[in-house]
Write a structure and sequence with these properties.
alpha+beta, Aminopeptidase, nine-stranded mixed sheet, 7 helices, 31% helix, binds coenzyme A
């Protein structure tokens, strides 16, 4: 018996050309912490809703580990977050997440992602978003997918635009303490989605059952 037999998210693997999205098992966490410590964005920027990436160096790693463990511990069909590590030609480069509530009914989910700075601006972000969208639409039967980016995050907004999202309102948020920032909400459906290379998925049947879908939903 393997852990993936008990916790099917650990059995998922999504391939797209030389890109691979894999579950964040414990052995993957230190590599992600190293990438985050190397830097994800300029020190004065903050692309994330929760400003986790600027935690003191000695706290960042344990915060990340606890965040991934919390995602596993609270995973249920009613609300789940799937955190996947991204490998490019075998090298760990960043993370691609997808989160949702009551997916079997709502058929909508929100994505989020990051790449270590040294791996940005080479098209990987676009390809990993296309990969997770193809997974959501084709393998899970999503009807729409959402995303959001602060209006001062041109790279994320460019990725969304390139893969077919349309604007879905602007939200006012507190970013860092005392700082008002605007989030551009985005939405894409399967017909508007601009696909990349085809994906292949392993472990999908067990994962579908785990999130409350079954064969009749196919
Ligand atoms: C957002 C992110 C995942 C995108 O990944 P990436 O690999 O850098 O993106 P890509 O190379 O696929 O595409 C980036 C696009 O943004 C454009 N872009 C980047 N910086 C830009 C700028 N300052 N102004 C305008 N466009 C910009 C690029 O030109 C490119 O578009 P193009 O292919 O049409 O030329 C990555 O930059 C990242 O991790 N950023 C920090 C964390 C983050 O912002 N996460 C998302 C939170 S919503």
């Amino acid at each position: 018996m393997t852990l993936a037999d008990q916790f099917p998210p650990f059995g998922l693997r999504i391939h797209c050309g030389d890109l691979e999205l894999v579950p964040i098992t414990d052995d993957v966490i230190p590599g992600l912490v190293e990438l985050a410590l190397d830097g994800i964005h300029a020190p004065d920027a903050m692309p994330f809703y929760v400003p986790w990436s600027t935690a003191p160096r000695e706290e960042l790693g344990r915060n990340m580990a606890q965040f991934y463990w919390q995602g596993r511990a609270t995973f249920s069909p009613a609300a789940w977050s799937l955190h996947l590590a991204v490998r490019h030609t075998g090298e760990l480069v960043g993370c691609q997440d997808v989160s949702t509530r009551d997916f079997a009914v709502t058929r909508t989910a929100e994505t989020g992602s990051w790449l270590a700075s040294k791996h940005q601006s080479r098209g990987i972000g676009t390809r990993m978003r296309q990969t997770i969208l193809a997974f959501a639409f084709d393998e899970l039967g999503a009807t729409e997918m959402t995303s959001g980016a602060f209006t001062d995050n041109p790279a994320s907004l460019a990725v969304s635009r390139k893969v077919g999202y349309r604007p879905n309102g602007v939200e006012r948020r507190q970013r860092r303490p005392g700082e008002l920032a605007q989030v551009q909400r985005l939405i894409v459906g399967p017909d508007d989605f601009r696909r990349g290379e085809p994906i292949t998925v392993t472990g999908i049947e067990a994962f579908r059952l785990f999130i409350g879908l079954d064969q009749s939903d196919r």
